[in-house]
Every structure is written in structure tokens, then in C-alpha cells.
Amino acid sequence: MNITSAADGIYRLSANAEDILFEGLWPIPNGVSMNSYIVQGEKTAIIDGVCGWDGVPQTLFSQFEQAGIDVNSIDYVVINHMEPDHSGWLEDFRKIRPDFTIVTSKKAVPMLESFYGIHNRVIEVGDGDSLDLGAGRVLAFAEIPNVHWPETIATFDTLSGTLFSCDAFGSFGAISDAPYDDQLSAEQIEFFEAEAVRYYANIVAAFSTPVKKAIEKCGTLPIRIVAPGHGIVWRRDPHKIINDYRRYAEYQKGPARDEVTLIWGSMYGMTEKAVGPAVEAMEAEGVKVHVHRVPESSWGDILASVWTSTGVVLAMPTYEYKMFPPMAAVLDELGKKRVQNRKAFRFGSYGWSGGAQKELDEIMERLKMKWEFLEPLEFKGSPDEDHLTEIRSRCRELAREVKKIAAASPV
Ligand SMILES: Cc1cc2nc3c(=O)[nH]c(=O)nc-3n(C[C@H](O)[C@H](O)[C@H](O)COP(=O)(O)O)c2cc1C
Ligand SMILES: [Fe+2]
Ligand SMILES: [Fe+2]
């Protein structure tokens, strides 16, 4: 990855992280890029340093050299967000250049102390504050709390109209040497859209209300470039990713797209017998169906599918008087991300007593998910033809409902 110029006096440095679990938890099959930006006036600032993951700071330091930028010329490090994927290199950087000044929010100050023992040469900034780098370059700051942590700010370069948004407007996906939307084909943009959905659903989803507030606040700025901490830089159409994020935030409480996610699990294939017919029935109604098996599919993928789906079908058997455990775990995660108001249907097999349905009802109640279910269908052992006919019929009904709702409120 090479250093590139995002605008006059603004450089993007980037390193890809692959073969890790993001936040120690989320699989990133296509990797993720970690971006920093150098902004030059008479003074020089670097915005969104990056993590201390193996090799990442070293990759960035070599990019300074590539652009002929002396590390010792950095006056300010702007920390928009203290999560170590962006702040983790401060200790390494201090070894090379001990006397830079950190510019960050008030709430980040105690975090600097507790994460890295840093308490001097720190300037606190918040709404309405700015930093003059000279040569007409002024950085303005806006607090965007809880996108993704409480201390988060965004930085706006008033000269170029660049919004350095850190986690907001970010996406997964490693990036080759074409990091700008104006360099990418329609298919490549589509790839990053899908990566943005998964990033949003996995990392930002729980903070959808703060995301909406941040968009409102940043909407007052004359934005010409969106330069996030992860993913591509939006230069040809900066409002596309902002509008996409606005939609993703709306998906939390539904309705979302005219799509259904079917999540299924089965021990001995009894529940599985009805999965194919259910999928066919919904596809026959013309809705897109995402199918995931638990525990095989990753939570990250399931969450991304459910996030964009107005309908959800759950298929699982009873296990020790409760629900097939990996399904309960996934539903718990969906509840914590506050995926609400889905149209849903559940079917599954049991041996003698059942119990899966009771736990499903409990989870929905406890996590206040407000999913509206069609009448569930349970069968003892193998489903017979009548069961399959009924499952097909309810799945068609669900698909029709999903299409109707999504058409009435297109997002
Ligand atoms: C470990 C285990 C625990 C089970 N616990 C229950 C139970 O508590 N109540 C019940 O009705 N059936 C229980 N069953 C029976 C299954 O629900 C039944 O075999 C069902 O057909 C399995 O569907 P599947 O092949 O889709 O997994 C249990 C089965 C297994 C293997
Ligand atoms: Fe973050
Ligand atoms: Fe991040």
C-alpha cells in the first residue's frame, strides 16, 4: 500500500489488517484497512493514528518516507477516537518523536492516561473549537459521542472540505492501491457497500441513534470529501456513504429492505427437511433470501443479513427443553444490537416435550425485540407433507408482507 494524496496538502496512509478477528471477535474475511491522514498547513497534523497490530505502525512509518515527509515534522496528532485500533500507535510514535501535541476531546483525556499513561502535551477540543495549522488550513472539531465510543469527535478541514470521520462512514475490506471512490468501478463500489453494511452491523449498529445525530450535525458542514478511519475515501460522491449510513441507522428499528434472512440449525436433519421448501416458497414471491446455518455461519455475517432484512425466519429444534443453543446465542446478539420490529416466522422439530418456542418467546420479551411472528409451526420428528405445505404457505405470507412493508417505506 502506497501513501496517496487525497487533496492538496492531505495524504492518506493506510495499512491492511487481515487474518485477525476485529475487536478480537468479528471475522473479517476480506480484511480491513486502517487509515491515517496527514494534513499540512505551515504546521503538520496527523489524524487517526492507527493500531499497534503487528506491522501496522511500521507500514505507516515507511509511507512517511515514501512521501518525503519527515516524522519529526509532525506537530499535532489528532485523536478522534481512543479505541486502540486508532490510538494504539501513540506509544510507538512517542519513541520516535517525543514532543508532539495530542489534540483530542475532553472525555478522551482520562483514557489517554489509563490506556497509555499519557498526560502532558494534550489540547482538549470540542464543539466549536478549531486548530489553525497556518497557510489557510483550519481544522474544526465536532463532538459525535458514541460513534463509536463516548469520547468520539470528527475533524473537518475547512480548506478542502474533508471530514475525517474515524469509525463513522467506515467499511471493512482491505484496500489495494485505489483507495478513492473516483478510482473504482461500479462492482468495486458494490463490494465496499457490502463491506460497509457488515462493518456497520458488527461495529456501529448498537449506536444507531448517535449515528443519526452525528449525521444531522455533520450535515451542516460543506463536506466535499469523507475520509474515514477504515475503508475507502469518498471524493466523487461524499454524500453517498452519508446517505447509506443514514439508511443503515434506520434499519435498526425497521423496516429494512425487501429481504428475508433465514437462520437455521439442525442436529439430525429433521428441521433441515423444511428449510429448502421454506426458501423456495419465499424466493417464489420474489424476495431475496439470505440463508445462514448455525453454528457454522459467523455472527458477523448473520448480523449483516438480518440488519438489512425486514423479515426473519428461524428454524431450529428443541435441545434439552430449550432452543438449539447456537440459535439462542445469535438471537441474544441480535437483541443486544437492538434489531427490532422484524416480521418473523419460526418452525422446528422436537422429540417429546418441545421447549424451543418457550425460550424464543422469553428472549424476544427480555430483549424487547418487538418482532411480529406468524403462528409458529412445530413438528414431532420429521415434518410430513401437511407440515411442509403449511410452512410453504406461511413463508409465502411472510414474503408478501415483507414486500408490502418495504414498498410502503422505501429505505
Ligand atoms: C441433545 C438433545 C437434547 C434434546 N432435548 C429435547 C428436549 O428437551 N425436548 C424435546 O422435545 N426434544 C429434545 N430433543 C429431541 C430433538 O428435538 C428431536 O430429535 C428433533 O427431531 C431434532 O431435530 P433436528 O434433527 O432438526 O435437530 C433433544 C435431542 C438431542 C439430541
Ligand atoms: Fe471504534
Ligand atoms: Fe475503528
TrEMBL record:
InterPro entries attached to this UniProt entry: Flavodoxin/NO_synth (IPR008254), Flavoprotein-like_sf (IPR029039), Metallo-B-lactamas (IPR001279), ODP_dom (IPR045761), RibonucZ/Hydroxyglut_hydro (IPR036866), Rubredoxin-O_OxRdtase (IPR016440)
Statement: the UniProt record of this protein carries the keyword Phosphoprotein: no
Keywords: Hydrolase
Family label: In the N-terminal section; belongs to the zinc metallo-hydrolase group 3 family.
Taxonomic source organism: Marispirochaeta aestuarii
PANTHER family associated with the record: ANAEROBIC NITRIC OXIDE REDUCTASE FLAVORUBREDOXIN (PTHR43717:SF1)
CDD domains: flavodiiron_proteins_MBL-fold (cd07709)
Tree of life domain: Bacteria
Record domain Flavodoxin-like: where: 260-399
SMART domains assigned to the protein according to its UniProt record, in alphabetical order: Lactamase_B
Protein name: MBL fold metallo-hydrolase
Pfam families (alphabetical): Flavodoxin_1, ODP
PROSITE patterns in the record: FLAVODOXIN_LIKE
Any GO molecular function: oxidoreductase activity
